[in-house]
Specification:
2% strand, 2 strands, 237 residues, mainly alpha
Length: 237
């Protein structure tokens, strides 16, 4: 008789849960991964975005997208910063749509970033991420792994990042796209087929908000068109 089959010394030891061979290690919580990522960059002084991508494995692209969105969790607009970071998110999302390795061009990816200069921002962002991670987990149907879903979700990330790049000095113009990007990235990273619908709802709310802003601006321009036209004519005369 084979000694292994009789439960001898060659048999696999039971797992702590008593279920035979132990299961694969579960990835750390989202907030912990972000915290370790930022702590690692702080320990290295000024780490580049491409350097952060290389050290985060398969989940790195969504982790970095979330990190790039964190400065906009507050309702205060940051026009110049949002344009640069939004462009980086767009490039990462496009490469993810096309199935290309996550990498930023040199003018963005190789630029050093000092994350340790904003401890209050990091602390506030961790509170948001800890709230999200209580709900984000693998669940629901597996359609998020389909190629069509990957392209569609990537396109939605690009659209939200485009709104993020707009240099509008108005409240919540950065916050809406930011929350949609964070929720969508967390859903895709955790393969959460239910939380992703919350991200879609946030994206719809963002579209409605920007539509309202566009309507108000168009109304003001239409109302004062003749005054603005006369002012421009006198200015150019």
């Amino acid at each position: 008789m084979n000694p292994d089959s009789a439960g001898g010394a060659g048999a696999d030891p039971p797992s702590p849960e008593g279920g035979g061979v132990s299961r694969a290690a579960k990835p750390p919580p989202l907030s912990k991964e972000i915290e370790l990522l930022l702590q690692g960059s702080a320990g290295e002084g000024r780490r580049t975005l491409n350097g952060m991508l290389e050290g985060t494995g398969g989940r790195g692209v969504y982790l970095l997208i979330i990190v790039l969105s964190l400065p906009f969790v507050t309702p205060l607009p940051l026009p110049a910063v949002s344009t640069v970071l939004g462009a980086a998110i767009i490039l990462l999302a496009i490469r993810q749509m096309l199935g290309l390795p996550p990498r930023l061009p040199r003018f963005l990816g190789e630029r050093p970033v000092a994350w340790s200069r904003h401890p209050k921002l990091v602390q506030a962002s961790m509170k948001l991420l800890r709230f999200i991670e209580r709900w984000a987990r693998p669940r629901g149907p597996s359609w998020l792994s389909w190629r069509a879903a990957r392209i569609g979700n990537g396109a939605l990330l690009v659209l939200m990042a485009l709104f993020l790049t707009l240099p509008l000095p108005l409240p919540f113009t950065n916050t809406g796209p930011c929350y949609a990007i964070i929720l969508l990235s967390a859903s895709l990273m955790e393969e959460d087929g239910k939380l992703v619908w919350v991200a879609y709802a946030c994206a719809v709310g963002t579209l409605l908000y920007f539509g309202l802003i566009s309507g108000l601006i168009a109304g003001v321009l239409a109302r004062y068109y003749s005054t603005i036209y006369d002012w421009v004519c006198r200015l150019c005369a």
